[in-house]
Amino acid sequence: MRVALVVTIVAVAGSARADDVAHDLAEARKLEAALDYAGALRIVDQALARGGSDTFQYIELHLLGGKLAAGLDRAAEAEAHFARVLALRPDAALPEGTSPKLTAPFAAAKAKSVVLAIRVTSVRGLVTLVPSADPLGLVAGITVAVVDGAGAHRDVTDRRSTRIALPVGTTAIEVTALDADGHRIWSGPPPTEDIVESPKPLVEHERSWIARWPTWAIVTGVALGVGGASAWRVKTAQDEFDRARSDPDYDFAELQAIEQRGNRWSYATNIAFGVAAISAVVTTVFLVKGNEPAAVGVTATGSSASVGVSGRF
After folding, report:
1. Could you tell me which of 91, 21, 24, 9 has the C-alpha nearest to residue 54?
2. Is residue 310 part of a domain?
3. Domain for residue 311, yes or no?
4. Which domain holds residue 90?
5. How far is CA 64 from CA 8, 29, 31, 32, 287, in A?
6. CA distances from 311 to 234, 240, 259, 276 (A)
7. Would 24 be classed as within a structural domain?
């Protein structure tokens, strides 16, 4: 009973507003016929500010307002009224023989007019107006006519948003766009509920340790450590060789053994630094690729892998 009462009140209020607009239009036209354009325009402006008209009445108010403003030599104001008319009714036209005072702002508005275009979406009970063409910024709110399981009809409205959540247990039967003053400027059927698929989880393919940049970074670090230690052993062998050779009683066989040991460490140093250089390149590639598997080809030649650490043996 309470729901039915609310619906009845809403319906009566809507009918009363429509009657008020119809009365305002009638009064404004009487004043227009009496050449009281200023008085007629004042009534039109009051009706527009009050809001609540349907689309047909909204168009009639702006069309009459444009004519009255043009008759008062307010060309810019007339053009603004006509622009709203043409955004909703692009085939609107002034009668043949209309004064140029009216046809000039009308033609200016028509030259720049863009027809209002709106798309409606519905996702999980959330109905949204999506204006795809609305250069005048007409769309400001939304009203959705709904029906519940008991067959009761009512409107759910948000004048400050273009989206609204439907009450649980109701079904949308009509969607209406409102302007900033609450005029119903566009109506259309509700869309079917959009099917929203849950995003598929990203499957992270397990990568081999060989295809990960941390692995190659470790190899680079180890190779640099080995290369550094080997280079130090080369330096030690070189110093030992120099001291032994400066001894007048040096043993040639001992010098030869020191030289061979130094050469071995020199080879180890070159190999270690060469490995470090190659693994650093591979590390960089995998790091830039974000750990994605990549075909990495590194060719080590004698000149590129050799760092050139040697003694004066």
Report:
1. 21
2. no
3. no
4. 2-108
5. 32, 8, 12, 9, 69
6. 7, 12, 9, 21
7. yes
